[in-house]
Amino acid sequence: WATMADDVNAIMRLKAERNAVILAHNYMRPEIFHGISDIVGDSLALAREATTVEADVIVLAGVHFMAETAKLLNPSKTVLIPDLRSGCSLAESITPEQVRELRRQHPGVPVVTYVNTSAAVKAESDICITSGNAVHIIESLGVPEVIFIPDQFLAANVARQTGVKVITHPGACEVHERFTPLDIRQVRADYPDGVTVLAHPECPPEVVDEADFAGSTAQMINFVAQQRPQRVALITECSMSDNVAQQYPDVEFVRPCNLCPHMKRNTLAKIRHSLETMTHEVTIDPEVADRARASVERMLAVGA
Ligand code: 13P
Ligand code: SF4
User: Fold this and answer.
1) Which residues of this UniProt protein bind [4Fe-4S] cluster (predicted)?
2) CB-ligand 2 contact for 92 (6 Å cutoff)
3) Ligand 2 proximity of 89 Cβ (cutoff 6 Å)
4) Spatial distance between the Cα atoms of 174 and 14, rounded to a whole number of angstroms
């Protein structure tokens, strides 16, 4: 079988032959994140950067909703996902019909939809958000109440920060919902001389309460880059610590983490295969795509 170096060399050659770029989420394994990616980031950065791609082909090393978002913003380009089964518990938690039902129950209340959803759900929405801009976008709407779907925990965390009332949906990230306040208390007990705890806002509010800071994956990386804590715990997916630790060897990372099985479907071998065979191509019904794109473009228009 091919070694990691064989795969990396083949991917580099194929990228040039196909005029392809690799966009990778912060949860990719280090050999993908550091080894072969052209653009890395959180969901917001990947959406923003997708609008600037000049290559003919985008390989999205991440999960399906991220590839759909890249396709929405690049309808004429080929967008590939290395493994079609890379789903997301949040995206799978809600259907377009459920969004229409929420609208019927709450007429006139804007529908704010987390980017971790299918294009069909985005198509039923007024505006998209990510964990990196949710507070800013909700505040920009200037309304007392929103339908905020499908992450009940992100919704609760944002409601507390903004004072805007949220009607939500019982979705959750299968990685972040598993953290408990006890996990964080245990980390602090293990390091009585101090540890800075950063949590993702997809964690339940009682977990965020125990942390020193909550933010998207990019906001966690910025925190480490700017504050250079001596010791840090990233309460999120496991590859984050592996990737950031390589960039900041002066910072000690303690690693209470949970793996995302969907993100972990991405491997060097599958990315190589994806570029060799030009599979799996992401397609979106044009009528759905037009409406979904509008909700993503509204988000990008609000700005940082
Ligand atoms: P962000 O990288 O936008 O914080 O999202 C985290 C996540 O769970 C993506 O699936
Ligand atoms: Fe979905 Fe959570 Fe995995 Fe992100 S980490 S893809 S939100 S299940």
Assistant:
1) 88, 173, 260
2) no
3) yes
4) 34
Tell me which residue has tokens 């997301």.
Answer: 88
Instruction: Tell me how far the alpha carbon of residue 59 lies from the centroid of ligand 1, in angstroms.
Output: 18
Residue written as tokens 């992450």? Answer: 151
Whether 267 and 296 share a structural domain = no
Helix (H) / strand (E) element for 50: namely: helix 43-50
CA-closest residue to ligand 1 atom 9: 43
Residue-level pLDDT at 143 = 98
Q: Quick one: 101 and 142 in the same domain?
A: yes
Residues 9 and 70 in one domain: yes
For every residue of 127-143, DSSP letters joined together read EEE-TTTHHHHHHHHT-
pLDDT single digits (tens) 42-101: 999 999 999 999 999 999 999 999 999 999 999 999 999 999 999 999 999 999 999 999
Instruction: Give ligand 1 pocket residues (Cβ under 6 A).
Output: 26, 42-44, 88, 116, 130-132, 173, 202, 216-217
Could you tell me the distance, in angstroms and rounded to a whole number, from the CA of residue 274 to the centre of ligand 2? Answer: 22
Residue range of the domain that includes 96: 91-173+287-302
| 33 and 159 co-located in one domain | no
What's residue 79's pLDDT? 98
In CATH, what number is assigned to the domain containing residue 291? 3.40.50.10800
Measured from the CB, is residue 59 less than 6 Å from ligand 2? no
Show the tokens assigned to 162: 């903004």
Confidence (pLDDT) at 303: 81
Instruction: Give pTM, 2 decimals.
Output: 0.97
**78 in the same domain as 8:** yes
Report the atom number in ligand 2 closest to the C-alpha of 62: 6
Ligand number nearest CA of 260 is 2
Residue % of the chain over a pLDDT of 70: 100
180 lies in the same domain as 244: yes
- The answer to whether the CB of 257 is under 6 A from ligand 2 is no
Using 50 as the pLDDT threshold, list the residues of the chain that sit under it: none
pLDDT of residue 1: 74
Residues 166 and 155 in one domain: yes
Q: State if residue 237 touches ligand 2 by the CB under 6 angstroms criterion.
A: yes
Summarize pLDDT for 178-192 with one digit per residue, the tens.
999 999 999 999 999
Q: Are 91 and 118 in contact (CB under 8 A)?
A: yes
| Total domains in the fold of the chain | 3
Do residue 156 and residue 184 come from a single domain?
A: no
